[in-house]
Specification:
- By secondary structure, this protein is α+β, with helices and mostly antiparallel strands.
- Helix content is 23%, strand content 44%.
- The protein has a single domain, classed as Alpha-D-Glucose-1,6-Bisphosphate, Chain A, domain 4.
- A hairpin with a 3-residue loop joins strand 5 and strand 6.
- The longest helix has 26 residues.
- The mean pLDDT is 96.
Length: 151
């Protein structure tokens, strides 16, 4: 018997302590097309809008496997957080993510990457595998980012 395909919702949240000043961390993460520097799976990131940062900025991410995702910045709080939505390229109806910085002290911050997702029709097993992939993707990317910012 095959599992029924239906819509699923979930969240992913990963947090890491980075021993670097808020300004340094913000400068790195707010470069919305700088992702290939700290996310291995992304081959290329380009602007699709005249707006380069802030609400209304649009980016196109090309992954090593050929997948292309379009993302739109929908919230922008300088030196604190930004949120974006993916409009194409994922097996999801909704993907809303936020990257935020919370100062621990003058020389270190907590960086949190969280998302809400709602799938296209898939089995519960397929959705669970996708969420696990996303958790691993966030963890790995944040470790690389931490390593770069602490050097």
């Amino acid at each position: 018997m095959t599992s029924a395909k239906k819509f699923h919702s979930g969240t992913v949240r990963k947090r890491i302590l980075i021993n670097a000043k808020n300004d340094k961390v913000w400068k790195k993460i707010s470069n919305i097309v700088g992702l290939p520097e700290w996310i291995d799976e992304i081959k290329k990131a380009t602007h699709l809008s005249k707006i380069k940062c802030g609400v209304g900025a649009i980016r196109k991410l090309t992954f090593d496997d050929g997948n292309v995702i379009e993302e739109h910045i929908v919230i922008w709080n300088p030196k604190q957080s930004f949120s974006y939505i993916a409009t194409t390229g994922l097996p999801l109806r909704v993907y809303h993510a936020t990257i935020s910085i919370q100062s621990k002290n003058k020389k270190s911050v907590y960086l949190t990457w969280s998302s809400y997702l709602n799938s296209e029709k898939m089995t519960a097993k397929e959705f669970k595998e996708f969420v696990l992939y996303l958790e691993t993707f966030y963890e790995k990317s944040l470790r690389v980012l931490k390593s770069q910012l602490e050097n």
